[in-house]
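Reply to dn_fold:

You asked what the input looked like. This is it:
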Amino acid sequence: MAVALALALGAIIGILLGLLGGGGSILAVPALVFGLGLSLEEAIPISLLVIGVASLIGAIPKIRQHQINWRMAGVFAACGIPATFAGSAVGRLLPQSVVMIGFAAVMVVAGIRMLMDRGDTGTACAVGDSGIDWRRCAPRSIPAAAAVGFLTGLFGVGGGFLIIPALVLMLGLQMPVAIGTSLVIIVANSAAGLISHLSGASIDWAITAAFAGTAIAGSLIASHFGTRVDTDRLQRWFAYLVFVVAAYVLVDTIFLR
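and this is what came back:
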């Protein structure tokens, strides 16, 4: 029964990932905790596995199209990976209820970002069409990278809803390059988070394989047909769903546990 439910939930998360990009992964941990009854320690590694593999698959066409700023990805990964291990360590010290309340807050921020997304591009750090003024923008990119890495380790989220605004609005990357660069950063941070969580977690590999397998398959299928869907409207409705799930997480954590 648990494996069948994992197959169904994984497919739903995968379809959202394929249609919306990284933002769909924000529901992976709640689906595993409240849908399958896993502990947070079991849910986070599974979420990171799904996010990492799905992002890797999504990054492949971006690599072929040369839509990745490798220097920026390197800066974010170099600062984010140590922060990911720090976030994992902090998460092990906190009660699950505290982490879940924090996760609900992150979900609200993610939902707001989805509703505010206008595709604007900043120019504060840009030099010409493709260059970046590193002396001016390192103080912006390093804290942003560390914050995203910390959230990845603590909550098991990819952080695309924070990475892309940082790359576009703060650092002036064009949206297609920002998306490709974000995917590479998510792969690096997710791999670090997965390694840091595997050491202390007891994982049900049957549920992991079922959830991750259908999530990845659903992501591939949905991304293939995604051009036929009104993604702007879908993103709005998904943001409302994220708010509802965040409210449920808060009520369940504070009043029902």
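The CA atoms of residues 20 and 232 lie 9 Å apart.
Hope that clears it up.
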